[in-house]
Amino acid sequence: MADIRKHSIHRKTGETEIRLALDIDGAGDASVDTGVPFLDHMLNLLAKHGRFDLSVEAKGDIEIDYHHTVEDTGIVLGQAFAAALGEKRGIFRYGSGHFPMDEALVLVAVDLGGRPFVDYRAPDGVPHIGDKFNFSLVEEFLRAFAFNALANLHVEVLRGRDPHHMAEGVFKGLARTLDEASRVDPRIAGSVPSTKEVL
């Protein structure tokens, strides 16, 4: 495993332009400006509770809606995470837990084993968060992140009434499970946590 697990990306498309820097072994410091206030809030939570240093500057077609900016930020963050992990030598690989946020309770489990998959379950008909942030964008972000981070991700909102609380539980749970899974296990330092010896 590399001593420095950092990566920076600049990605420009016809819909978004994103500059992102990630340090997996950070202190939870974040500087985030995507033009989507609720996404900024969630990414700040992700950095803080995952102990990742994260810088994100995004410009997107938010005058249309938030979809492209949210999805593309997930893509770029996933790519940065995969690149920063490198060969994944010595990592725990798995993380899971139940995460409460007031009345909401969320289950999150992740495997950084290189096989991208997402199983996302949440109540139907959850209202928008504030005036503009569609709750379905939470799933779009998770899917974009997981497939680009090469992660197997399971997320289930077990209960909740407030859409903000449900989304916050998801992002805090994602942060904690990613922190757990990406941590270095001193017992296997230098080894890849797979019988295939490659992830």
How would you explain this protein's 3D organization?
The chain has one domain (6-188): Imidazole glycerol phosphate dehydratase, domain 1 (Ribosomal Protein S5, domain 2, 2-Layer Sandwich). The radius of gyration is 16 Å and the shape is globular. It is built from four helices and eight strands. Helix content is 34%, strand content 28%. It has 199 residues and is α/β, with parallel strands linked by helices. The model has no long low-confidence stretch (mean pLDDT 95). The strands form two sheets. It has a four-stranded mixed β-sheet with strand order 1-2-4-3, covered by helices on one side. Strands 5-6-8-7 form a four-stranded mixed β-sheet, with helices on one face.
Count of beta strands: 8
The strand order across the widest sheet is: 1-2-4-3
Question: Mean of residue pLDDT?
Answer: 95
Q: Structural class, judged by helices and strands?
A: alpha/beta
- The sequence of SSEs as H and E is EEEHEHEEEHEH
Identify the overall geometry. globular
Separation, N- and C-terminal Cα atoms: 12 Å
Annotated CATH architecture: 2-Layer Sandwich
Instruction: Tell me the radius of gyration.
Output: 16 Å
Please, how many helices?
A: 4
User: Major sheet: size, sense and barrel closure?
Assistant: 4 strands, mixed
β content, as a range? 25-35%
